[in-house]
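Good morning C.,

I know you're traveling, so I'll keep this short. The sequence:
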Amino acid sequence: MSDLITAARPYAKAAFEAAQASDSVQQWSQALQFLTTLVSHEDMVKVLESPQLDAASKAGLMIEIAGDQLSQQQKNFVNLLAENGRLSLINEIAELFEIFKAEAESTIEATVTSAFPLSDAQKQKITQSLKSQLGCDVSLVTETDASLIGGVVIRAGDLVIDGSAHAKLGSLAYALTH
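The tokens, ready to paste straight into the viewer:
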């Protein structure tokens, strides 16, 4: 996964810079979300994996399906990805683009996964703590996962804080066996 992010980062950065320069960050965000949905469709996955089609054909098909949902600059971006064999990175490019967008807007989306639903007071405390640690506004998304046993796992951009009982038990087990 980290290799995919590393490969996608320069493309996401270039797309974001192009979007900022043309004052079309929201349009680029929507286009990348559309492309993510498109490349995730089972029929498109088969097309992209097909060795019978060259890169230009794959890009042409995607652009044709997109119709007028893509600007000329975004179509050029799809062609560039195809030429470099990077169409499979669209999901990661879209994710990184959203991170760059949030950073530019001084906001970040943090996902908090807990074993049990969090109270409003707990959500507020986590939000305030992340806001002071990251120096930007935080939009909190909560999920529950009973396998954590207790505690929380927080993901905000590249930051991951694993305070779950599951992780602590895993660390303890490792320490006892090594």
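Safe travels,
E.
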